[in-house]
Every structure is written in C-alpha cells, then in structure tokens.
Write a structure and sequence with these properties.
The protein is α/β, with parallel strands linked by helices and 509 residues long. It has helices at residues 2-40, 54-57, 64-69, 88-93, 165-175, 205-212, 223-237, 239-244, 328-337, 354-363, 380-387, 417-420, 425-431, 435-448, 463-472, 475-485; strands spanning 104-107, 110-113, 119-123, 187-189, 198-201, 249-252, 270-273, 290-291, 313-319, 343-347, 365-371, 390-394, 413-414.
C-alpha cells in the first residue's frame, strides 16, 4: 500500500515538473521572438546630434516609414526632397538650436527652405594659376583670391560660358565668408578640414581646356596638361587627400574633355560633370558623381505671353548636323524632317548672329529637339528650357541634373533613338500632342526654369544652390565609404599576406 502511495506521489510531482518546464519554455520562446522582432524593426532612438554635421544627415534618415510618410505636396509628386519629419505639421515643429526649421521641400515648382547652412565646405587655397589667374587676374598682396566685393574678374563669353560651373561655385564659396552673406546660402566655407562635409578643389578645368589645351609648337606640353600634372602632385601631397584617399573631395570637370589626364589618377573623388559620355564607369558614374546643368546661352524668356497658337513652328533644331559616335541620329533625322511642314531643321552655330537666330527660333517653336551629338548632352536642352520650348530628348545615354528630385517627364518628351529614326514616327508623335498637353508642359517649364539659372550672389534654389544640394545628397555615401575603409585602422598591422587556410574538423565532411 505504501508503495502505491509513493508511486502516486511521484506521478503528481512529475506532472507538476513537466507542466512547470513546459510553461517556462513557452514564456522564454515568446519573449525571444518579441526581442527578435524588435531588433529587426525600425530604430526608434537615433540621436542625429551624434552624427557629423547632423543638420545635413538628419534629412537622410534611412527608415522606410519616413520615406513613405514624407511630405509629397510638391508638383513633382513623390520626387520631393526628403523631409526630416513624419508629416508636414511635425516638420514645422522641428527646430534647430536657434529656433529655425530644418526643412527643404518643393511646392509647386517653388522651393521653400530655411536659411540654415546645409553644407560645410573646406576649399583649398590653390595658387591663382588654377582658377582666377586663368581669367588674367593678378593677385595683390598675399591673398590668392580676388576681392569679389570690389570687383569680380570677367569670364569669357561664347561657348566658354556653357561650362562655367566652376566659376559660379567658387564665387559662392568665397561669398559665404562675408558677414553680409545672403541668408539663402546653401554652403559655408570652413577653415578646418576636419569640420567639413566636402573638400572642394577650385580648379577651373573647363576654362583651362578651352583656353590652353592647344600646345605651343615650341613646347612639348600644353599649359592645360601641365596644370593637370601640378594639380595631381598638389592634391596627393595634402593631408586631406591622404586621410581619405580623395573620397571626400569634389572636383569640377564639366567640359567633356577637361581633366583628360588627371581624371584617371583622381577618380576616387566626386566629379561634377555634364554627362558620362567620355568616362569609363570605373572612373565616373551616377552613384558617385554629380551631373550639373550647362549655363544656357540664350537669354531667359521674361514675361512670356505666348501660347500654343502663337508659336508657328512645330519642331525646331539648329546646330551641327554631322556628328560622330551617338550623334549619327542627327544626320538620319535631318533627312527625315527637312521637308516637313512647320519644321525647322538646319545647320547653325553661335558665330555671327547665331545666338540671336536661335533665340528667335526657339521662342517661336512649340517643341525643340535635343539630339545626342558627340556626347549624350548638350547646352541645347537648357536653351530650350529658358525659351519655354518643350524639349524633345533623343539621347538614350543622357543623364540629367537633379533627376532624383525633378521629374523631367513632366516638361520634356523622351523618345528612343531607335524609334525616332523610323520613317514618320517622330513627326506623327509630335503632331499627336494636343494643345492641352502642350500647355501643361509649357506651364511646368516656367515653374522649373529657375533651377537652371546661375546667379551671383546665388538665389534660393537657383542652379548654384541646386548643384550644392545635389552634392549634399552624395555626402552620406562618401561617409559610408570612408567609414568602411577605416574599419581596421586601429587594428595591429597584418604580418601575413594573402589568405590563410583554416583546417576543417575531421568530421566536417
């Protein structure tokens, strides 16, 4: 009898133990899943003040929920610049220490932004021969820079102007140091390179190519090539370059043929270019570099009261017709369109009164052709925008300025080259665009044209500031490269070279 009672007690204890064990296991299992789910979710407690230049990086929070909830009231739909808020009301409450908003957004083609500095720029004090000395400016005293408050050195006209980006950006950095600098600025110059977001190299490379690429018969090297060699020597000797390997440097090479020799040595830097037509992808690409607009040569169409019916020319093109490489389509299109009614397709240049004729022709046209030439891009696109002539882009490899925030399809027509050169395809396509659709794009052109205007001092979201903003959007990727490359900087130096094999356990296979 006692044995039976003992056995019964053991069963009860055993059942209780098993129940307790099962309960604890279940609780631990549920808690483990809870912590796993939390760890894979959105980080809720990121203090942007701990990041370098938090004012800049706070607009690039990588959370999916923020991207989904960003302010999209812009006329460009969901291509608005990311807002550091979950909705517009919260954004208006987000303040910097001095009580100003940290907000950049587009609203119907007009940009509303604060007067907070976005980008900290360290600019090398290069000798004048690399910049304003190319404009025949002579330094006085110890300064390598002109006093632009007194007089700005003149920039040559004609085709030189279309690649003058280097001139405008350098002026903007210099002006940022003035006490009375515009509150609309997007950059400020810093004297300590460790505080900077970007290291700016003020070499007027396009001007150097345009003026000095042809060598003197009595000289072995052109002045342009000599300057490139000097620039490489100078940069690679600087502590800033050695520290980053050039990954945080910004170099201007807007003319397709500028920096031809130096680009292969300075490729880790971010380039500001007009397109990638003459660059291999390992030297320049859309992930690393910035595409900037040409400065249009045709003057802006102020007080444009034209309409669909008052522009008699349906389709306009004036320029070089016989080109090499990707520009062969121009020749094909010339023979297809030259006899079409209401189409102007002829040879032209800026010589004599070429710009005057192009201005008159574009302003009288509904659509303006932008066809690939020797390179994918040309100034013709920006002349068309300034003339409010709807651009028709036939250039399969073209890259466009600020396309991450601007939807060009709202004010441009894109046609594949293979389709455009089919008989009657292009002309029928253009004729099929009605008055209402054209007027919508025409109005959009007038909304966005200020993004392509260059001013000094720079103005709110003009071309100068839009380029700087495009550079700012590259900074997080630069930081990522720098941080990844410095992972093992504090580790002991490696003695063994190459991979070391590790013996596998005997029972591994």
């Amino acid at each position: 009898m006692a044995e039976r009672n003992g056995a019964s007690s053991l069963k009860v204890v055993s059942r209780k133990s098993l129940f307790f064990f099962f309960t604890m296991t279940s609780v631990l299992f549920i808690m483990s899943w809870f912590f796993v789910l939390r760890s894979t979710g959105r980080p809720h407690f990121i203090d942007h003040n701990l990041l370098p230049n938090s004012k800049l990086f706070s607009t690039f929070d990588g959370s999916n929920s923020q991207m989904q909830k960003q302010n999209v009231e812009s006329s460009f739909g969901n291509r608005a610049i990311l807002v550091d808020s979950e909705d517009a009301e919260e954004a208006s409450e987000t303040k910097t220490p001095n009580g100003k908003e940290k907000l950049v957004k587009y609203d119907g083609g007009k940009c509303n932004r604060n007067d907070e500095v976005v980008l900290k720029v360290f600019m090398y004090d290069l000798p004048p021969e690399f910049h304003f000395g190319l404009l025949d400016w002579k330094p006085s005293g110890n300064s390598v820079w002109p006093d632009i408050r007194a007089k700005i050195p003149g920039y040559p006209g004609g085709l030189n102007l279309q690649h003058s980006i280097e001139f405008w950006l350098t002026l903007d950095v210099l002006a940022s140091e003035f006490p009375q600098a515009s509150k609309a600025r997007t950059v400020i110059r810093v004297r300590n390179s460790s505080e900077a977001d970007i290291i700016f190299v003020p070499f007027f490379s396009s001007l150097s190519y345009n003026r000095y690429s042809k060598g003197n018969p009595h000289e072995k090297k052109s002045r342009n090539k000599i300057l490139q060699e000097k620039l490489v020597t100078y940069l690679t000797a600087q502590e800033e370059w050695k520290r980053s390997g050039g990954k945080d440097h910004l170099i201007l090479a807007h003319h397709p043929n500028s920096m031809l020799d130096a680009r292969v040595k300075l490729w880790p830097a971010t380039f500001i270019l007009s397109d990638f037509g003459r660059y291999p992808p390992n030297i320049a690409n859309v992930e690393k570099d910035v595409i900037a607009p040409y400065k249009h040569l045709i003057s802006s169409y102020v007080n444009d009261n034209s309409n669909f019916d008052s522009r008699p020319t349906l389709l306009y093109f004036q320029g070089a017709i016989y080109r090499k490489d990707g520009g062969l389509a121009r020749q094909e299109l010339f023979y297809l369109l030259k006899d079409e009614k209401d189409v102007h397709f002829s040879f032209g240049s800026i010589q004599k009164d070429g710009i005057k004729k192009a201005t008159k022709g574009m302003r009288a046209s509904k659509f303006c052709l932008n066809i690939a030439g020797d390179t994918p891009s040309s100034n013709r696109l920006f002349d068309a925008i300034a003339s409010h002539c709807v651009p028709v882009i036939i250039s399969d490899e073209i890259e466009l300025p600020y396309e991450d925030v601007l939807d060009y399809s709202e004010f441009c027509m894109f046609i594949r080259t293979s389709d455009a050169i089919k008989e009657n395809f292009l002309i029928n396509f253009i004729k099929g665009i009605g008055k209402e659709e054209w007027t919508r794009m025409w109005n959009k052109l007038k909304e966005v044209e200020h993004f392509f205007e260059f001013h000094f001092p720079s103005k709110d979201n003009d071309a100068v500031q839009m380029i700087w903003q495009a550079v700012a959007r590259k900074v997080p990727a630069m930081r990522l490269k720098l941080n990844r490359s410095g992972r093992f900087s504090g580790s002991p130096p490696t003695i063994d070279k190459g991979l070391k094999s590790i013996a596998a356990p005997r029972n591994f296979w």
